[in-house]
Amino acid sequence: MPYNCYSSVLSTLLSNGTSAEQFDREITRLQQQPPDPVLTVDAATGRWQPILSKAGNFSIWMPPGTLSEETRTIDTAIGPLTFQVIASNSSNTRSVVAYSNLPQSTATKAPDQILSAVGDRLKSRTNYPLVSDRSISLKSYPGQELTFKGANETITIRYYLVQNRLYLIGTKYSGGTTSNMALTFFSSFQLMN
After folding, report:
1. Residues 53/59, Cβ–Cβ less than 8 Å
2. pLDDT in tens, 91-130
3. pLDDT tens, 21-80?
4. CA distance 74 to 118
5. pTM tops 0.90
6. Sequence-ordered list of residues with C-beta below 8 angstroms from that of 77, at least 6 positions apart, any chain
């Protein structure tokens, strides 16, 4: 189902106690700080869209495409994780940002155990060979980056553990090297607090 970015985000923000002025300030901030590296997009193919999630506590620039919103649950060794997902779909790419609050049972788990359990599940969900698995971070928060390559496309997934929440940012695109679109998408992700 198409995702009406501004009206849906605005109604979510306002229902969560955010004022219209705060929403306007965040839109202005996003418009003044386009993602790095700056990617020029032909107007005929669409424009990058800023996404603000008060519930998820993040902002990101989504690549051109049809936006959708969904809920997905995946079973992991630490228990089921239910993700709130926003995706941008075009003819040759799919970009996803998602978040999940961790189950209470993970409170005693070490961050590397949580990241490992999620990584193991993600690795088992694709038929493409894993070509890269590396540790990354978002500010001081730990994360992982997985890259899978098929004959004609690449899937790159970054996921971060931020206190009791897991963020997942992923993209599937044609070609074998990380595209400027993917780099721009990943670098645009920011926590709002």
Report:
1. yes
2. 888 999 999 999 888 888 899 999 999 999 999 988 899 9
3. 665 666 666 556 555 444 444 434 478 999 999 999 999 999 999 999 999 999 999 999
4. 9
5. no
6. 117, 120, 121
CA dist 50 → 16, 64, 99, 128, 136 (Å): 19, 11, 17, 30, 24
Sheet holding 79-89, edge to edge: 66-76, 79-89, 93-101, 165-174, 153-162, 141-149, 130-138
